[in-house]
Amino acid sequence: MDKLNLRRELNAARSALSPEQLRANAIKVRETLLEQPWVQMAGLVACYWSTGSEPDTHGLVFALWKHGATVILPVLREDDDLDWAVYDGPGTLAPGRFGIMEPVDTRRGVDAIRTAALVIVPALAVDRRTGVRLGRGGGSYDRALARVGPNVPTVALLHDGELIDDVPAEPHDRRIRYAMTPSGLTSLM
Length: 189
Known about the structure:
Layout: H1 3-15, H2 19-34, H3 37-40, E1 44-46, H4 58-67, E2 70-76, E3 82-87, E4 93-95, E5 101-103, E6 118-122, E7 125-127, E8 133-134, H5 140-145, E9 154-157, E10 163-164, E11 178-181, E12 184-187
């Protein structure tokens, strides 16, 4: 299946999830991820503020911040690349482009992700055999992931059923090291 049709299928499946299922999924993902020693030790975490039916990151971001991690969240630039700014608590976000909540803190630049000890990204699906991530199609996270060092854990948050076989890959697609679903954490490399 091509990327466009796969995205349509995955978005339709996400739209069918109930609010109760989305909440239950968020709790399972957050609790399992926070149990990982490499998550607990990460001093600087690049994450994202979820929207719609994406696996919810709001509680995860807050928990990381309360634990003492510096959490940077993306700020979508006009060229669709990702700038980064520090999350400093629930009252420090404002709607950005497309209504996505972004930190109001000073922008740290596109290269801020280079210093992250852990990178958590959105995905519609991840290929369980190759680690290829399917995003929404803008390429923003592929550009950001290209700046991440080879030893930095990268985690895509997914709903069950989104860790699949045969995600179409293109040369610019970046691979992910871990897929996190409500059913558990899967190492892909």
